[in-house]
Amino acid sequence: MMLRKTLSLTALLCLICGSVLANAPSLPREARVPGGVAFVEIPGDKAPARVMFGDYQVAVIRQDNRWVAVVGIPLATKPGPQTLVVYSGTDRKEATFNVTDKQYRTQKLTIKNQRQVDPNPDDLKRIQQEQQRSDAALSKFTPGADVPGLSLLSPVPGVRSDSYGSRRIFNGQPRNPHSGMDIAAATGTPIVAPAAGKVVEAGDFFFNGNTLYIDHGYGLVTMYCHLSSIAVKVGDEVKAGQLIGKVGATGRVTGAHLHWGVALNRAMVDPGLFLEPQTP
Ligand SMILES: [Zn+2]
Prior knowledge:
14% of the residues lie in helices and 38% in strands. With 280 residues, the protein is mainly beta. Strands 9, 12, 14, 15, 16, 18, 20 and 21 form an eight-stranded antiparallel beta sheet that branches. Strands 3-2-6-7 form a four-stranded antiparallel beta sheet, with no helix packed on it. The chain is globular, with a radius of gyration of 21 Å. The N terminus is likely disordered. Bound molecules: zinc ion (ZN).
């Protein structure tokens, strides 16, 4: 009798495990650190109207009959408790989660063109305008018919650097930390869209060279920098795997590579969390 009970309990537990595994998204991987992604359960039966983290709306997915906010954590976040604000009708609630510290490396780089480290006043004007365009593209939150799919294909084959988050010293001067992933590839290597989306910005940028932004919906926006050529234009709808441009060495670079940025609720998060791990 006892044995039968144990067996049926085991069977039941396995069934539960199976359903959990079947429904849990494998990507992005959760990492509650600056530059990472947090999955935060939102209590309640009905879909929340809106979940905000700071000034930005957050994607909410349905998982195991629960509503789960998928939150991009900005690199500059101070470790400690964080608050999401959840709006449903006239109701306002809070949901909290904790961010732990992560130490990123320091990288020293030498740039031949000193003007790309110390831009002149005209350059600074241009850079400011480009930052506004970039910010507008990266801040988009476009709802769609379906719940968001948040896993991505690698936009180019090649060795992925793990320099996301590293503090950067250009020609001896500290600059912003590295907010994306560099993938080593020769000039001319095709770049594909990592998921379906819409091209929302493209141009020749001072630091980033030929640059392209794709809005995938629900606050997931990807950017591609230093391209030798761009194969799509603003307004184009792209499919996952479609050619969008080619790798190059335009802008502030030390050699040809793709700089790939992934924004989730405007936070530039670690793109590696959205990819299947690379097999060595
Ligand atoms: Zn880069």
